[in-house]
Design brief:
The complex is a heterotrimer of chains A (about 300), B (about 375) and C (about 290). Chain A is an all-alpha fold and about 300 residues long. Chain A has helices spanning about 10-15, 25-55, 60-70, 70-105, 105-120, 125-135, 140-145, 160-185, 190-195, 200-230, 235-240, 245-255, 260-280, 290-295. Chain A contains 14 helices and no strands. The longest helix of chain A has about 35 residues, at about 70-105. The two termini of chain A are about 35 Å apart. A six-stranded mixed sheet of chain B has the order 6-7-8-3-9-10, sandwiched between helices. In chain B, strands 13-12-11-14-20 form a five-stranded antiparallel sheet. Chain B has helices at about 45-50, 95-105, 110-125, 140-150, 170-185, 195-205, 220-225, 230-235, and strands at about 5-15, 20-30, 35, 60-65, 65-70, 80, 155-160, 190-195, 205-210, 215-220, 240-250, 255-260, 265-270, 285-290, 295, 305-315, 320-325, 335-340, 350-355, 360-365. Chain B is α+β, with helices and mostly antiparallel strands and about 375 residues long. In chain C, helix 5 packs across helix 7 (about 160-185), helix 7 crosses helix 9 (about 200-225) and helix 9 packs antiparallel against helix 12. Classes of the chains: A mainly alpha (about 300), B alpha+beta (about 375), C mainly alpha (about 290). Chains in contact: A-B, A-C, B-C.
């Protein structure tokens, strides 16, 4: 932890180290060493191995299977479609909640916030389990529908694409609500007052002022939801069925049932590429910290 | 006496292309109270952070008590520092804050530390507050704790970075007095950064005036006030009138300046720093303080007078300030300070003569900056 | 214009104000607001429903799922606590989660220090890489870790889980501690150095005590990121070492009994307790 006392270059990186406000390059490197070691052993090396396996046999045969068999292409586009639908559903359901949270007085806002945080803090497994119980053939929702005379017999709710979308929307909604909430909170109330003062009605003020200024939060939440939805496994595996196969469940099926690891590796690499593509496309809008920092 | 000498030799700080401090050389005597005074961005705080060791200088040397500390880490410099917003540790009590530097030195026994802390608390009159936390104290009390923490280990040099900036005017004046008394009692060498000239002039033995990273002048408050060696210093310290003219003649004894067709004044050269000679025809800027002029009825001013018309009169307690527009040059007006002794000597629109004390005028070459 | 808006409110009207306002023009406005209220109430109910349902289910007499439950019992809890498989999985997960909390919190806090205060030439790359495990689908990490660990006999092992879960938990720590450090006034550290403290003393005596709420929150995130994790655990578990997440996943798929409801209730209680504590701690901190 010694300070750098060598003659100082004017380059920006050296400038930082000549100041006691910053740690020296040596100290900084020492500080990140454990992280880099963990990332190498638990992230970079395994992913590299996975990608290597997908090219095994020195050919692109596994990728050919991904992109030529209609079933696999259907799953790929189906996954993107489901992610999109889930994102839109989260936005439509989440925006009013975020808006309410930002507008209510402190005590009530805390109560609404609790309704957002409690599911967020509940294990995804527990929530998937609850959906299975709620949606199954002799489950609570079917019971309710029959008792109220809406249907004669039980409906097939579980193991459908609808169930997958419902459960995934539930899991991802907090990731939509929190960034929108923080964008709306950051919006000075004077803007809306000014709009109202200039003669805009409440709806005009909302459309012309509140909505555009909340867009950064909307984008951050949407990108986050979409990217996370692309790779969901637990929820679709438990509440979905053969008719609602997603990339993740397809990979799961290849590894656990068919034991075709090289093909699973190729599917994984494609899913990884698609995910990274969207992350890179929207990286300006994506803010990982936005949602999480408002958690506490 | 705990103070030691501090010398800065050719100190420089470069940030990329910009020079925050250029060639700063200062020799500060043991027990001396020196202020670094300048507008924001003048490099005074950067100079202080280099003395403290928070920033390494790009060039130059720093020595304390004759020992070169340029390359020494900040925690080994043994310099006390009072930070701008005090930087008291919020998670520690006042006692623990003051004991912190003593604990870090590791040479003192627990009982000795406790005794020292009590002494320091007494010194800054906060004996009853030892177990409180910083956020439970007022701004002035926090300021005193910061001073106590900085002085607890009897540092040879104490640095203060705008320590009173966060306090209101009244408290600030009281604290100036307290700090000055404390410094004199302990004989500490103090380097005090401020942008408030009143503060610098009342507290300091000597003041270093900085502008744009450069040392403009280093001297006692009286010297700075009476013999500013640049137009910047003349303008920065106190109230000053500037009037542009042309040099007609310049000798060791006097400078003759023409202000207009009709007005030519002979100023005694002893008033400027004496080193400069101006050729005839040089554009000159004459600086003179409002209290070194007086007003007379038009025609009563004698030879060395500037005719003018009173534009406004402002009562400022013990004196009047008259704003007088020059008869020959209506675009220029001068402030003249007159002692208030009951009667207002002149009214608005009165024709007057401004009588200059030729020995009190300062003559500078005209630079780009337009003042008058 | 001014006839339409005779009242200029000093603050933005809340729902309550609007409902209580005597100036509401028409019943249709009131009806619209009521409908919006019911709609949002429905969304909030939808959010809470899965969490709320596990407790009554875990107390149900019947071994099939029935709602409302017929009679209350704790037998599913005793079944959980007396099942050696469940207990083995629980202890295994607990051990891993505690160890992961330690490694992820230490490594993540150190990295956050370097990111906020250090001089790193490749800072943004490292930051992106460290947050990667949050974005990369966990199924990919699961498959990749299985492929990497299986030849090294690390599947089902404490060490294998520790490495995997540390990587999964570390982004939460970095994000949380970075935010804390950015709120911390670095002048305090300069003051500590000026008082004679070295870098380590300055960190442990001045920086750490001031960012401790953030670090504690980060530790809770890290614990839950490991304890509630199921996807990667699904791939790197084996007969010898199975996490509670893997065990639950299997049972939901093949053996749906109210024991799962009891386990779920325990998991939910743990999460809410830990997160609630962090939340209250920080709410208290920001008040004082």
């Amino acid at each position: 932890m010694t300070r750098s006392l060598t003659p100082l270059s004017s380059s920006p990186s050296f400038r930082r180290s000549s100041s006691a406000r910053f740690y020296s390059p040596t100290a900084s490197l020492a500080l990140v060493t454990p992280l880099i070691a963990a990332l190498l052993a638990g992230f970079l090396y395994p992913v590299a191995r996975l990608i290597a396996l997908s090219f095994s046999g020195g050919t692109l045969s596994h990728y050919r299977r991904v992109f030529t068999e209609p079933l696999h292409l259907d799953v790929l586009f189906g996954t993107i479609e489901v992610a999109f639908v889930v994102t839109v559903a989260s936005l439509l359901l989440g925006f009013p909640v975020a808006y309410l949270m930002a507008r209510l007085s402190k005590g009530l806002a805390m109560a609404v916030a609790a309704c957002v945080f409690i599911p967020l803090w509940t294990s995804v497994l527990v929530r998937s389990y609850a959906w299975v119980v709620l949606l199954q053939r002799n489950g609570i929702i079917n019971g309710l529908l029959i008792d109220t005379g809406v249907t004669e017999g039980p409906l097939k709710l579980i193991y459908t694409e609808g169930a997958v979308i419902l459960a995934m929307t539930h899991v991802l909604m907090p990731f939509m609500i929190l960034p929108i909430y923080s964008a709306l909170r950051a919006l000075p109330p004077d803007y809306v007052r000014a709009a109202r003062n200039l003669g805009a009605g409440p709806i005009r003020a909302f459309v012309a002022v509140t909505l555009p200024l909340s867009l950064p939060g909307v984008f951050a939440g949407s990108v986050m939801c979409f990217v996370l939805a692309l790779g969901f496994y637990i929820t679709p595996a438990l509440v979905g069925g053969p008719g609602s196969m997603l990339m993740a469940t397809l990979i799961g099926q290849q590894t656990t049932v068919l034991l075709d690891w090289p093909f699973a590796a190729a599917l994984s690499t494609v899913l990884l590429a698609v995910t990274l593509l969207f992350v890179l496309l929207f990286r300006r809008m994506l803010s990982l910290s936005k949602g999480l920092n408002s958690v506490y | 006496m705990i103070g030691q000498t501090l010398s800065l030799a050719g100190l420089q700080k470069r940030y990329g292309e910009a020079l925050a401090v250029r060639e700063l050389t200062l020799d500060i005597a043991a027990g001396e109270f020196v202020s670094l005074l300048g507008p924001s961005g003048s490099g005074k705080t950067t100079a202080l952070t280099m003395i403290a060791g928070f920033e390494a200088p790009s060039a130059g040397r720093i020595a304390i008590g004759g020992r070169d500390v340029t390359l020494l880490a900040p925690n080994h410099r043994n310099i006390g520092m009072v930070f701008q917003k005090y930087a008291l540790f919020p998670h520690l009590t006042i006692r623990q804050n003051i004991a912190f530097p003593l604990r870090m030195r590791g040479r003192m026994q627990k009982t000795a530390i406790a005794r020292r802390v009590e002494e320091m608390l007494e010194l800054v009159q906060l004996s009853g507050y030892a177990e409180r936390y910083p956020n439970q104290l007022s701004g002035g009390q926090q300021q005193r704790v910061a001073v106590a923490r900085a002085l607890a280990f009897e540092p040879p040099v104490l640095l203060m970075d705008e320590p009173l900036g966060a306090l209101d005017k009244k408290l600030r004046e009281a604290m100036q007095f307290e700090i000055k008394q404390l410094q004199e009692r302990l004989g500490a060498t103090v380097v005090y950064v401020t942008h408030d000239q009143d503060e610098a002039l009342t507290m300091s033995d000597r003041v270093a005036i900085m502008s744009d990273g450069r040392l403009m002048q280093f001297g006692t408050p009286t010297e700075l006030y009476r013999q500013p060696n640049t137009e910047f210093v003349a303008d920065f310290i106190g109230r000053m009138n500037f009037l542009d003219g042309d040099c007609l003649d310049c000798t060791a004894e006097h400078t003759v300046v023409r202000f207009s067709e009709r007005t030519v004044l002979k100023l005694r050269s002893a008033a400027n720093d004496g080193t400069r000679k101006y050729a005839a025809g040089t554009a000159l800027r004459v600086a003179i303080r409002p209290e070194r002029m007086r007003l007379a009825k038009r025609g009563d001013g004698g030879a060395d007078a500037l005719p003018g018309v009173v534009d406004a009169a402002v009562f400022v307690g013990s004196t009047y300030i008259f704003l007088v527009r020059l008869a020959d040059r209506p675009e220029a007006s001068l402030q003249v300070q007159v002692a208030a002794d009951g009667v207002v000597p002149f009214q608005r629109d009165d024709a007057v003569d401004i009588v200059l004390d030729g020995a009190a005028a300062h003559v500078f070459p005209v630079t780009e900056r337009c003042v008058a | 214009m001014s006839i339409d808006h005779p009242r200029v409110t000093a603050r933005f009207p809340t729902l309550k104000d609007v409902l209580a306002s005597p100036t509401i023009r028409s019943y249709s406005t009131a009806a619209a607001i009521l409908a919006a209220g019911i709609g949002i109430g429905g969304i909030l109910f939808f959010l809470l429903l899965p969490t709320l349902i596990v407790l009554p289910m875990s107390l149900s007499q019947t071994d099939y799922i029935e709602f409302p439950p017929q009679g209350l019992t704790l037998k599913w809890y005793s079944a959980y606590f007396n099942d050696p498989d469940w207990m083995a999985a629980t202890w295994f997960s607990l051990k891993i989660a505690l160890a992961t909390t330690a490694t992820a919190t230490v490594a993540g806090t150190m990295a956050a220090l370097a990111i906020v205060r250090g001089s790193l030439p490749f800072r943004s790359t490292l930051q992106a890489l460290a947050l990667g495990p949050m974005i990369v689908p966990h199924i990919i990490l699961g498959v990749a870790l299985y492929l990497a660990f299986s030849p090294l006999q690390l599947t089902g092992s404490f060490l294998g889980f520790l490495v995997a879960h540390t990587v999964l938990a570390v982004p939460y720590v970095i994000i949380t501690v970075t935010a804390s450090l950015q709120r911390f006034d670095p002048t305090l550290e300069l003051a500590a150095l000026n008082c004679g403290a070295n870098r380590l003393q300055a960190f442990f005596l001045v920086v750490l005590p001031n960012i401790v709420p953030g670090v504690a929150a980060a530790a809770v995130f890290a614990f839950l990121a490991s304890f509630d994790e199921a996807t990667v655990a699904f791939f790197i578990s084996d007969i010898g070492g199975k996490s509670i997440g893997r065990k639950m996943f299997e049972d939901i798929d093949f053996n749906l009994t109210p024991v799962i409801a009891a386990v779920s209730t325990v998991l939910v209680a743990t999460s809410l307790l830990l997160m609630g504590t962090v939340h209250l701690m920080n709410a208290h901190k920001s008040r004082s």
